[in-house]
Design brief:
Structural class: alpha/beta
Strand order of the largest sheet: 7-8-9-10-11-18-19
Strand content: 15-25%
Number of helices: 8
Helix content: 10-25%
Order of helices and strands: EEEEEHEEEEEEHEHEHEEHEHEHEHE
Oligomer: single chain
Number of strands: 19
Shape: globular
Distance between the termini: 40 Å
Length: about 350
């Protein structure tokens, strides 16, 4: 029996032919990393491989690690496997990982979205025999509106609140979502302030050449009254904290795909919910799978059972693969992110 290109183990997705893991959740000797979110890029591995664009954030988050880089589209031989990284469109530097062994091609998607967002590299379809797909939002209810419409809603909320003499506090994950929001804001409305976790990430991405508007770091000695009508971007966990109280009677908002669900909006306690996700919605999941040409589909982290069952009715050979992905960037009650 031919050895599979990738297998699913207690440490993560493993390639026997190359003796490496993809986004492993337990320490391994060699890890190929799709992107810098902490449920995918974890500490403790012997050696790391990531895209040139993802590497600075991974180093920033993990500290002193042995990290090699690879360009998008570059092919590299690891043992008997040929690997290459291709844009996933999730956050800056994020990648799908293509693995070829003996002419058979598998792709591990990591996290992805198809719609261009004007900030990160746009998703690139990769033809393969088997596709390991996330399905964070793998239900028909999750269908995203065009980004420009959400941007208009956020800017209108900001302008209206600023005219009332109040600040806007907008909750967003500090890597990816926060910077995407900044690129959508109209800086003519007022100043943009940032929590330290967001500003530290901004500095890394700016140094790489990603275009972000001017922002002001909210330090302990910053006089927020000197920035009337500002929009403040912070991790969701900061919105109800002592840190946020300095802004007084502010209006609060959350930007997340989970805002599509009213119950989540209520639990978050925000005044406004903006449905904006860095993950594929229901139609995009289907389109991405179609573009791969794959017959075998492995559904991970998300509505896996429902999604795999639906794919099987459409003629695919779909299976559920339990993983330990998930946590901060795709869990509705996460303290740091709401996807």
């Amino acid at each position: 029996m031919t050895e599979p290109v990738l297998t699913f183990t207690e440490r993560g997705i493993y390639c026997p032919a190359g003796d490496f893991y993809i986004d492993p959740w337990r320490p391994v000797s060699r890890a190929l990393i799709t992107h810098g979110h902490s449920d995918h890029a974890r500490p403790g591995h012997g050696a790391y491989l990531a895209t040139e664009a993802a590497a600075p954030v991974i180093r920033h988050r993990l500290g002193e690690i042995t990290l090699d880089t690879i360009r998008f589209g570059e092919r590299r031989q690891i043992g008997r496997a040929t690997v290459s990284f291709h844009p996933a469109g999730h956050i800056p530097g994020s990648a799908q990982i293509r693995v070829e062994v003996g002419g058979e091609v598998w792709v591990a998607s990591g996290d992805y979205k198809l719609a261009p967002d004007g900030l990160c590299e746009t998703f690139e379809p990769v033809r393969c025999h088997a596709f390991i797909t996330e399905c964070t939002f793998g239900l028909p209810v999750f269908t995203w509106r065009p980004q420009h419409e959400i941007a208009a809603e956020i800017n209108h909320w900001w302008a209206t609140t600023a005219a009332e003499g109040r600040h806007c506090l907008l909750g967003a994950y500090s890597l990816g979502k926060a910077q995407r929001l900044m690129a959508l804001l109209d800086p003519e409305i007022g100043p943009i302030l940032t929590h330290g976790a967001v500003e530290n990430t901004n500095a890394v991405l700016r140094a790489q050449g990603y275009a972000l508007p001017d922002t002001h770091h909210v330090t302990p000695d910053l006089d927020v009254k000197a920035y009337p009508g500002a929009l403040v971007i912070a991790p969701p966990s900061a919105l109800g904290s002592t840190w946020a109280r300095r802004f007084g009677r502010a209006s609060t908002g959350m930007a997340s795909g989970w805002m599509r669900m009213r119950g989540v909006r209520r639990r978050r306690g925000a005044d406004r919910g903006f449905v904006l996700s860095d993950h594929a919605d229901w139609p995009e999941l289907h389109e991405a799978i179609r573009q791969t040409g794959a017959e075998r589909i492995f559904a991970t982290h998300g509505y896996t059972e429902i999604f795999a069952r639906w794919l099987n009715t459409q003629g695919y050979q779909a299976e559920v693969v339990p993983t330990e992905f998930g946590g901060e960037e795709d869990a509705a009650d996460s303290a740091e992110d709401a996807a």
